[in-house]
Amino acid sequence: MTHQNAIDTVVGPLAVRVVGSGLPAVLWPSLFMDARSWDRVVPALAQDRCLVIIDGPGHGASGDPGRRYTLRDCVTGARQVLHAMSVTEPVDWVGNAWGGHVGLQLAADHPEQCRTLVTLGTPVASLSPAERRRTYPLLALHGVLGPITPVLSGVTKVLLSTHTRGHDPEAVDLVCDSLRHARRRMLRNAVLSISLGREDLTPQLTQITTPTLIVTGSEHAGFTPDQAEAAARLLPHGRTAIVPDAAYLVPLEAAAATATLIREFWAHPVNGVDNPAPRENPTTHEPVAAPSPNDRRRSG
Fold first, then answer.
1. What integer pLDDT is reported at residue 145 of this predicted model?
2. Rounded CA gap, 256 and 258, in Å?
3. How far apart are CA 30 and CA 9, in angstroms?
4. Which of 36, 112, 113, 117 has the fewest Cβ atoms surrounding its Cβ within 10 A?
C-alpha cells in the first residue's frame, strides 16, 4: 500500500507518503533533503512496518509556517500528522540528522508515543562556532544566487563522504537536485530555525527511556564515532553503530547496512528494562556487530 497526502500542522502543511503495512514507523529526513533520501531503504523497511515518510517544513512538497519555528514545533507537527492519520499506538521513529533531532525531542517529551528511536547522522550538540562560520556564507550565497556550483559543492562535501562523492553519482545528483528544487525562503527559514537555532540536546539524553540506536558515519565530521558513543552512554537504553564510508546521509550512502541495522534493532531493541542494551560499534566493515557493553572502539 502506498499513498500520499498533505496534512496541515503548526509548521505548515506537511507532505506525507505512506508505504507498507504493520506497526507504524515514522521517517523524517535531513535538512536540505526531501523524502527521496529514504528511497533506497524503503523496500527493506516496509517489509516490517507501515512507513509514514514526512517531508520536513520547507522541504520537498511541504510548506512552512512563514515564521521561525523550533524543534518542539516540529514534534507538534509530527504528532498532528499521526493524529490526522488516526495513529494512536507508539511509533518507531527513524530520523536522519534533523529527523533524529525531532525524534530525540519526541522521545524526551512524549515517551508514550515512541516505541523505539533510531537516529542517523544526528549531532547531539548545537553547532560549533566553526560550523556556524561555514554555514552563514553558504546560506547567504544561496539566498542571493540560488543553487550555484559553490553552494552545491559546499553542501555535498558536508553531507556526503569522500567515498560517496567519488563512487555514487546518483547520491550526489539527489543532493544537488534537492537543493535546486528548494524554495529559497523556506530553506533559509529551516536552516535558521533548526540548524543555526538548534539547542544542545545533550542534557535531555538521560531523560530518554525509549530504546535508542544512535548511528553515525565513519566520515561524519560533525558527529564522530567517539561523539556518538559518548551520547549513547548517557541513554538508559542506548546502542551505537558506525557505518563505514558514510557521513551525514547514512540511509542514502549505505542503504543496505542502514536497513540491516534498523531491522535488527526493531527485532531486538533492548535486553530488558533493568539491563540496558549493549552498544553496537563494529570494529570491521561489517554493518552490525555484537561487542561487549565495554567495547568503545571505532570501526576500521
1. 86
2. 5
3. 19
4. 112
Torsion angle of the four alpha carbons 247, 248, 253, 259, in this order, in degrees rounded to the nearest 10: 110
Angstrom distance (rounded) from CA 300 to CA 293: 19
Q: From CA 120, how far away is CA 249, in angstroms rounded?
A: 8
Q: Which DSSP category does 289 fall into?
A: -
Q: How many CA atoms lie within 13 A of 20 on its CB side?
A: 19
- How far is it, in rounded angstroms, from Cα 277 to Cα 268? 9
Closest Cα to residue 10, out of 71, 61, 99?
Answer: 71
* pLDDT (tens digit per residue) in 33-48: 999 999 999 999 999 9
Fold of the 1-300 domain: Rossmann fold (3.40.50)
The span from the first CA to the last CA of the chain, in angstroms, equals 40
Query: pLDDT at position 286, please?
Result: 47
Q: Which residues contact residue 212 at a Cβ distance below 8 angstroms, ignoring those fewer than 6 apart?
A: 107, 116, 117, 118, 119, 232, 235, 237, 238, 239
Here the cell at position 10 is: 503548526
Instruction: Quote the distance between the C-alpha of residue 60 and its chain's center.
Output: 15
User: How do the domains of the chain map onto residue ranges?
Assistant: 1-300
Report how far residue 260's alpha carbon sits from residue 249's, in angstroms, rounded to the nearest whole number: 16
Question: Do 188 and 139 contact (CB within 8 A), yes or no?
Answer: yes
CB-CB neighbours of 197 under 10 Å: 15
User: What would the grid cell of residue 258 be?
Assistant: 542502514
The answer to which of 85-89, 144-148, 225-229, 280-284 has the lowest mean pLDDT is 280-284
